[in-house]
Structures are given as C-alpha cells and as structure tokens.
C-alpha cells in the first residue's frame, strides 16, 4: 500500500512559494511519477493525507491556500490517470 502521495507535513519549503498553477503542475507531475513507477506493484494509495480538521472543515495548508479545495479532485484525477487499477483513498485520523 502506498502512503502517502499528498501530505502538507512532508512538503519541501520551496513548494509553498509557488503560484497555484505551478503547484498544480508539481502535484500532477509528482503523482504521475510515483504512481507510474510502482504501477502494478502497489495495489492502493492514500492519495491525500490528513487534510481534514477534527471539526470536519478543510485544513489550511499550502495546497489549499494556493490551489484551493480543488486540490483534492486534481490529486485524485491525476492518481486515477496514473494507475487506473489502484484503489485510491483519502487518509485521515479521528
């Protein structure tokens, strides 16, 4: 199982300085690179990790600040395109 493709906790600092469109490009490239490399070897991925607050609201992260809440659909769409047979999950605690 692949954990995790998108997580603000392990985000290099330089990514936060990018524009929304640049971040989107980096996100898609990262997802495509990782998931095509391991296609057929990893059965499923936690595509998005820990982006929901305990009250159910979306966390304010560099992703949501610069790309907006569409970052989630962008990530899942890129993941599905990269590996059409992988199980895709949003991982969170609580």
UniProtKB/TrEMBL annotation:
Gene3D superfamilies: Glycosidases. The keyword Thylakoid does not apply. Pfam families: Glyco_hydro_10 (PF00331). InterPro entries: GH, GH10, GH10_dom. Keywords: Carbohydrate metabolism, Glycosidase, Hydrolase, Polysaccharide degradation, Xylan degradation. PROSITE patterns: GH10_2 (PS51760). One of its GO terms (molecular function) is hydrolase activity, hydrolyzing O-glycosyl compounds. GO terms for biological process: xylan catabolic process. Residues 1-94 form the GH10 domain. The keyword Acyltransferase does not apply. This is Putative xylanase. It comes from uncultured organism.
